[in-house]
Give the backbone structure.
Amino acid sequence: MTKQQKLKQQSDITAEQVRDYLLETPDFFNQYPELLEEAKVTNQQGGVVSLTMRQLALLRDKNEKAHKQLEGLLAIARENDALFGRMQQLTTALIDARCVEDVFATLDDTLRDCFGADFFAIRLIANDDCLDFPISDVLWEKDGIELENFKRVFDSQKIKCGHPTHAQAKSLFNEQAENVHSVALIPLKIDKQDGLLAIGSKSEDRFHPTMGTLFLAHLGELVGKRLASLQYIDKK
C-alpha cells in the first residue's frame, strides 16, 4: 500500500470511530500527554482553549450541579423534618380530643397554625348508621348533587391536589369559596362511612398535582380513625 493510499484510508475514519477508540482506550492521553495541550476546543464563550482547560470547566460545572442537587435534597429533608414535627403535634392534639367537636376545633387551629392552611372542611356521606352528625352542614346525602362534583375522588380513593372547580369550592367552603384557589382533597374512611377532608388555600401554588401526598395520606388516616373512635363512643 502506497503512502497516498494510507493517507486516504486514514481520512476515511469517522468521528464516531475516533470516539469509540478513545472510550475503549482510556489511557490514550497518558501515552500521548502532549495532545492535551495541542488539542483545542471551543468553550461556552466561543473562545478556543486547551483540552485540559475544557476538562476543568466541565468538572466545575458538574460540581456546581451536584452542589445545587445536594442543597435541594437538604431543603427537602428539612421540610420533611418540620412536617413530621407538626404531624406529631397534630396527632397528640387529636388523641386529646374528647368529642367530634374537639376534632374539628383541633383541625381548625392546627391546620392553620402548623400547615399554613387557610380553610378546611370535612364532609361525610350519610348512611343508615349515621343519619345525623353533631356539627351541621357536614353530611351529604347518597344521591346528593354534591357527590357528582367529587365522583373521581371517591371512586379512586386517591388524594387530589390542584385548583378546585367553582362547584367544588362552593360545596366545601360555602361563602369562602371565592377565596379558595388551591385545595387538597383527601378521601376519608370512617368505619364503614366514606368522607372527604378538604384543605384549602388562598394561594394558587400551595396545593398542586405534582406535590407529594405522603403526609396528607397520614393526615387523612389519622382523622378518619379518630372520628370513627369518637362516633363509636357516642353510640354506646
